[in-house]
Design brief:
The chain is α/β, with parallel strands linked by helices. It contains 14 helices and 20 strands.
């Protein structure tokens, strides 16, 4: 099948790694994800995909050339009949390809601590194609060897801690290169393009850019990538890290600017919480277990809680955090995305668009957040165990009069037939007594419960509760009532527990590994679509504006405590008790 695509070629020049002709493009390797991800999402991956396996373990046999076709610089001059062109990768002699991954902002903490280790883990587990290279790009002046030395300290063979770690690490580092340049310089990105072309040695080149940079330079980087470093004959994709703006207006402007240079299909907005194992397991638990799906509604569920807590403060991130606050940093993205997955209707299929369509329906059905349904707090200094813990405003990078919340609790409601009247409670905070992220589903009381006298006045103990602990120590457990062995009638609340560490001794992969693999495969299910983003911001923007305009003073709470007292009153307002406050869950 011969295909001619007319794309203005990027500039080219020099560098020095070549792959021998024995490498056969995206020849599928024995992929780790078959071992640690259940294959419950059969899909037709004929579009936008190469012959590797994405995180659902499904083989990818063809690739569509439609990435970048609709109005972006990559798509100019392409005829309509050429937009649905597929390369069959079953014959390695017909098409050879390379994968080039460029980490923009390579000298930053996120790149060093998360992105490079995730790429190495994928390489160690044979989940990357044969022909791949990794480039770091940043303003810092480094040589290739200095980049390798910088990232080598964070690369570990943590999965199963198997043999050949040093050999694999050495092989991976040989594929890592560096180019220094300004983020807004088309000339410097043209130089990067030249180096990439030298490594790609004339094969079909597929390029993934990971923007590990401050949000204020996203557009500059995307402009330079698109105009000067896009692939001339394969796909080009860009992963964008949160935050995606500060409110509806800035988010819409960011999306508009990005779409001047990229199509929606090329933009992968990453929320790493969607790649976490228990969040992935949420839809499996619900849609593949008959015991849960009939209960998943207002008829049986009394409330749902999404809880995120950290046992440390801003500690060095005060300047960044003060510009956003806990609502923008955690609630508007991580927790709201999990809520949408939890509450969505059964999608038509496991196709990315079908799932994202259902999530958008949930977000659009939600009532706008009201100030009376929100509590904000800020941690203060505290002495505990002979140690002094600083308050938020004690951070030298935070203004002394800052009103930025480090804690927030909110009650949200969904106006549809399934969830009408059910409070969805969110709670997120820093400098609390423990580190955790979990989903808690509290079921209704048993009507006419014969054993209610055995629980005394604490009727909450008589209700069932399903808990999905996202971190740490991933687990799913269901709280049930049972009789304590003996001659008397004494009831006890026990857990039916699936502790992942005990059931699956192999270490759970990091979320970034799954999301990077899916981006390479063109699988968008775990990435955020622009209309999802719009719907999410429309819920929170009026609240955020009101908080800032009225200069609402956050309630102070001691560092290392359970948070402000107001959060308990908010829950009590809807006849709810936070599930993480019982002694058994502390």
């Amino acid at each position: 099948m011969a295909t001619h695509i007319h794309i203005t070629p990027c500039s080219s020049s020099s560098s020095s790694l070549t792959f021998s002709s024995e490498f056969n493009g995206y020849k599928p390797r024995k992929c780790c994800f078959l071992k640690w991800v259940s294959q419950v999402r059969p899909r037709n991956y004929a579009r936008n995909s190469f012959q590797i396996k994405s995180s659902n373990g499904h083989p990818l046999n063809a690739v569509s050339m439609q990435d970048g076709m609709d109005g972006s610089p990559l798509g100019k001059g392409i005829k309509p009949e050429e937009k649905e062109v597929f390369f069959d990768f079953s014959d390695p002699q017909e098409v050879q390809s390379t994968l080039s991954i460029t980490v923009v902002g390579a000298s930053g903490d996120l790149a060093k601590k998360k992105i490079f280790p995730a790429l190495f883990a994928l390489y160690y587990e044979d989940c990357l194609p044969e022909n791949f290279i990794v480039f770091g790009y940043a303003r810092t002046k480094l040589t290739d060897e200095e980049l390798r030395n910088m990232i080598s300290g964070t690369l570990t063979c943590r999965i199963d801690k198997r043999e050949n770690c040093e050999d694999k690490m050495e092989q991976f580092l040989k594929r890592c290169f560096y180019h220094s340049g300004q983020y807004n310089s088309e000339e410097h990105f043209a130089e990067l393009d030249s180096k990439l072309k030298e490594k790609e040695t004339g094969k079909v080149s597929n390029r993934l850019f990971y923007l590990s940079t401050p949000p204020n330079i996203f557009v500059d980087v995307v402009r330079c990538c698109s105009l000067k470093a896009s692939s001339a004959n394969g796909w080009t994709r860009v992963i964008v890290e949160k935050p995606f703006g500060r409110d509806s207006e800035s988010s819409a402007e960011l999306t508009r600017c990005l779409k001047q240079y990229l199509t929606e299909d090329q933009i992968f907005r990453i929320d790493h919480y969607l790649g976490k194992e228990l969040v992935e397991n949420l839809s499996v638990l619900r849609f593949s277990n008959l015991v849960f799906e009939p209960l998943w509604s207002r008829n049986y569920i009394r409330n749902v809680q999404f809880i995120f807590s950290e046992d440390f403060g801003t500690e060095g991130r005060g300047g960044y955090f003060d510009h956003y606050g806990i609502i923008r940093d955690i609630m508007q993205n991580h927790l709201l995305q999990i809520l949408a997955l939890f509450a969505m209707e059964t999608p038509v299929s496991l196709d990315a668009e079908d799932i994202r369509n259902e999530k958008v329906k949930v977000l659009r059905s939600m009532k706008p957040l009201l100030l009376q349904d929100v509590i904000v707090g800020q941690y203060k200094g505290h002495n505990k165990g002979g140690r002094a813990y600083p308050g938020y405003t004690d951070d030298s990078t935070v203004p002394n009069n800052s009103l930025t919340p480090t804690f927030a609790a909110a009650a949200l409601f969904i106006n549809n037939a399934r969830w009408d009247g059910v409070p969805f409670l969110m709670k997120a905070g820093k400098a609390l007594h423990t580190k955790r992220a979990e989903i808690r589903v509290q079921f209704r009381h048993v009507p006419g419960n014969l054993y209610k006298r055995n629980f005394g006045t604490d009727l909450d103990k008589a209700t069932n509760e399903l808990v999905l602990r996202v971190q740490p120590d991933e687990a799913i457990y269901l709280k049930i009532n049972n009789k304590v062995p003996g001659l008397g009638m004494r009831l006890d609340r026990s857990d039916l527990n699936l502790l992942f560490r005990a059931r699956y001794p192999r270490e759970v992969p990091d979320a970034y590994e799954r999301l990077l693999l899916d981006a390479i495969a063109g699988e968008r299910r775990l990435f955020i679509r622009s209309d999802e983003l719009d719907a999410a911001w429309s819920l929170f923007t009026p609240l955020l504006k009101e908080l800032e305009d009225k200069k609402i003073v956050p309630e102070l709470y001691p560092y290392g405590s359970r948070g402000p007292v107001g959060a308990h009153y908010l829950a009590a307002k809807y006849n709810v008790r936070w599930g993480d406050l019982s002694s058994e869950d502390s």
